[in-house]
Amino acid sequence: MPGWQAVYEKLGDQNFEIVSVAQDTGGLEAAGEFYDAAAATYTTLIDVGHTVSSLYNMTNVPTGLWIDEEGVIVRPNEVAYSKNVDFGNGAIAVNGDDYVAALADWVEHGSESRHAMTPEEIVGRLRSPDDDEAMADASFKLAVYLYQNGDPERANALWDKAQTLRPESWNYHRQDWSFLSTEEAGQNWRQKFEALEGEPYYAPLILEEDKARRYHERSR
């Protein structure tokens, strides 16, 4: 997050705003420290019900999307690091530098930026949730409600159901594991990651839209 603060300080005076939304049922107690550590001056919110993930079909973090002054999405959700990252000797590698450069180009050029997508391109990247995904979302949200109202047993059963119905949602897994010890959560993450067997942890960040379109068509 300190990286995004640096981006905001560079671009914030160019009619650009960052809205960071932590997806964490633990609320301020769980997520607030990360905003504090980043000394963030951009807009920071906490979404205990993962509503943003539901609305924009987000399954992992960090995920970003670009919205223009008219409230129109010009790039849908994709992995959003503020700098290059490489975890596990290339096991998870994301070119965040190129992402920030593309973002800066859009801030400067608006709809004329080659990284801004047309409405037709946006539609080509989006899809409605299938039945399992819709049921997973409903199960997850009911689990959040039960947890917040003092019924962790039934909440856990529904969190398990959501993860079974949509196993590719790392947000579901991460939330469930957040109630475990750091060691247990780490073990669960490693086990789940190893089970990918070479499948990407993040969908590739593809800033050239013709290549991106072909990738997403193959992924459907």
Explain this structure.
With 220 residues, the protein is an alpha+beta fold. The protein has a domain at 2-127: Glutaredoxin (3-Layer(aba) Sandwich), CATH 3.40.30. It is built from 10 helices and 6 strands; from the N terminus they run H-E-H-E-H-E-E-E-E-H-H-H-H-H-H-H. It has helices spanning 2-11, 27-38, 51-56, 96-109, 119-125, 131-148, 152-165, 170-177, 182-194, 209-219, and strands at 19-23, 43-47, 63-67, 73-79, 85-87, 92-94. The strands form 3 sheets. Strands 1-2 form a two-stranded parallel ribbon. Strand 3 and strand 4 (73-79) form a beta hairpin. Helix 6 (131-148) packs antiparallel against helix 7 (152-165). The longest helix is centred in the middle third of the chain and has 18 residues, at 131-148. It is globular, with a radius of gyration of 18 Å. The protein starts with a helix and ends with a helix. Mean pLDDT is 91; it is low at 210-216.
